[in-house]
Write a structure and sequence with these properties.
Shape: elongated
Distance between the termini: 61 Å
Number of helices: 2
Order of helices and strands: HH
Helix content: 25-40%
């Protein structure tokens, strides 16, 4: 019984720490300055200008279409 209570206490502490660590003061990490940061389910604008860390390579039309379709489940229709 003592072992089970110890495991529950460790699990609860680990859960609390991971929940607290998941919240950063800077908001959503993938968002550039000026993008919405009010909640975890905000949707940023599409394109590399709206990313905090833009891609280092060339941004193609396929990349743009894919980024614009997120988080939709359907693929872009302009292929």
């Amino acid at each position: 019984m003592r072992f089970i209570l110890s495991l529950l206490a460790i699990g609860g502490a680990a859960y609390a720490l991971t929940r607290k660590a998941g919240r950063s003061a800077s908001g959503n990490a993938a968002y550039a300055d000026g993008q919405p940061r009010k909640a975890h389910d905000d949707v940023r604008d599409a394109g590399p200008d709206a990313m905090r860390d833009p891609p280092s390579g060339r941004w193609s039309e396929v990349d743009q279409a894919s980024d614009q379709s997120f988080p939709a489940s359907d693929p872009p229709g302009n292929y």
